[in-house]
Design brief:
Two copies of one chain form a homodimer. The first copy, chain A, is of the alpha/beta class. Chain A is built from nine helices and 13 strands. Chains A, B: This is Phosphatidate cytidylyltransferase. Chains A, B: It holds the Pfam family LpxI_N. Chains A, B: Keywords: Nucleotidyltransferase, Signal, Transferase.
């Protein structure tokens, strides 16, 4: 929920993918911020900043009347140039380094804390565009079968186990068998892997074709880096021969809900926001 | 350890891969048994049997003077033909079906129990050929660096989490990041995936190149289906750009230890039986 009492300006900290443009549209006219050198799909940055100069950037946000920030889209772990640090940002490095070594989620929490320590309210994508995070239920016309529901439950169990060790946010299960597990290369690479390897592994050729399941990690900070599904995910799931896509309701972003639903309908895949 | 007081004949129940021939050589002249229609690499079966007629097969083993059996090599979940069951084997189906639905490890335990219930002693590969299961330590000339040791520890954590939900027995970690997780398609497919996707994902191009780690599932029945490494694994790990291979000491089979060591030495990879 957006708190209207905090009606200062919103800054979008933009990374890769379709999310920044979708959130910018939903948010009216936020300040668009991007890491120097990164392209932002469909948007022209108002401010470019370098991570080595984070503190001057935060000062600039205050100067622009920003009180709220939201993170949108993925940023690959960037290389840092020690020569570019300003003294104030250099002071923050000892806070961040242990988090980098602990894994993605710790790092994201540490970054979020830096913004909150600087006095900003950090919003999640669902605060700005609730439509991108559908409530529990089946979307569109195709529904999972009982076998698909079992495959989704098995995949959810696997993703939860992986999440507990800070790995991946997805898995593919067919007929109870785990055909693939998501790791650093991401969902699309996992689906391509299933397309290349999985067909012959399903025990019953006429049985359940399998489910892609996505969920955030247990206890994941939901204001950053929620797993996402887009039309391309649906196309690749169809190419992998799957019956449909399920995800943890409230924990996964649909990047372009209409396009996702249209692709799923064209391919005959179900879309299911599953109650965890 | 082979118990010499149980000096009845040994039957090898053979599946796919190089293990049956390696165990047959180590065991002298065991009775070679294979599922009807399956080829056994380098061996000619003495007895072929069908799973639908398991009880008559067990009776035949008794007739041949067999008191000990060992399982060697993988058997993909076979399709069963209901028309072929004999009445005694049909009685066992209700015992097996729940295990099939619980996952691989439960199924293997149930099959092992059938042999034990029929009065056979079930040996593990390490009982017959201890040389295939090396003790803790580094094999060959290359040794892991401190960064490789950290990657192996991280991968071991991931494999343990996956094993707890009965998935996979391997993972690839480089510079602390999980590049791939093993699922049904197996280790070779995982390494090919890393070769195709992983190079650009390592944050520091001059940093640690990554480790393949393999381990049995926690609590896994070690007399069946131990994870295995062979010369082909080493070749694919080298093609994936990894620094070496580590595994849980005592829990992984080396299929052809000399060939594995020779391949690793040629490619400059370390081989490390890691104390869990």
């Amino acid at each position: 929920m957006t708190d209207n009492s905090q009606s200062g300006r919103l800054a979008l900290i933009c990374g890769a993918g379709a999310l920044p443009a979708l959130l910018a549209r939903a948010a009216g006219a936020p300040l668009i911020c991007a890491v120097d050198g990164y392209e932002v799909e469909g948007l022209t940055p108002d401010i470019q900043f370098r991570l080595e100069r984070l503190v001057p950037f935060l000062d600039r946000l205050h100067d622009e009347g920003v009180t709220r920030v939201a993170f949108a889209g993925g940023i690959r772990r960037p290389r840092l140039d020690p020569a570019l640090f300003d003294p104030a940002t250099a002071q923050l490095v000892p806070k961040i380094l242990p988090a980098i070594q602990q894994g993605d989620d710790a790092l994201l929490r540490a970054i979020l804390a830096l913004y909150e320590d600087a006095g900003f309210t950090v919003l999640g994508a669902h605060d700005i565009a609730p439509d991108l995070v559908p409530d529990a239920g089946v979307l569109g016309r195709s529904a999972p079968t009982a076998a698909d529901e079992r495959d989704a439950a098995r995949a959810a169990e696997i993703v939860a186990a992986l999440g507990a060790v800070d790995v991946g946010q997805g898995a593919v299960v067919a007929q109870g068998l785990c055909l693939a597990v998501e790791s650093l290369p991401g969902t699309d690479a996992m689906l391509d892997f299933v397309a290349a390897t999985g067909v012959a592994l399903r025990p019953d050729p006429k049985g359940a074709r399998g489910v892609l399941y996505k969920a955030p990690k247990p206890g994941q900070e939901r204001r950053m880096d929620l797993p996402a599904l887009g039309p391309e995910t649906v196309r690749r799931a169809a190419a992998a021969g799957l019956a449909g896509i399920a995800w943890e309701a409230g924990g996964v972003l649909l990047l372009g809900r209409e396009a996702v639903e249209a692709e799923a309908e064209a391919a005959g895949l179900f879309l299911w926001a599953r109650e965890p």
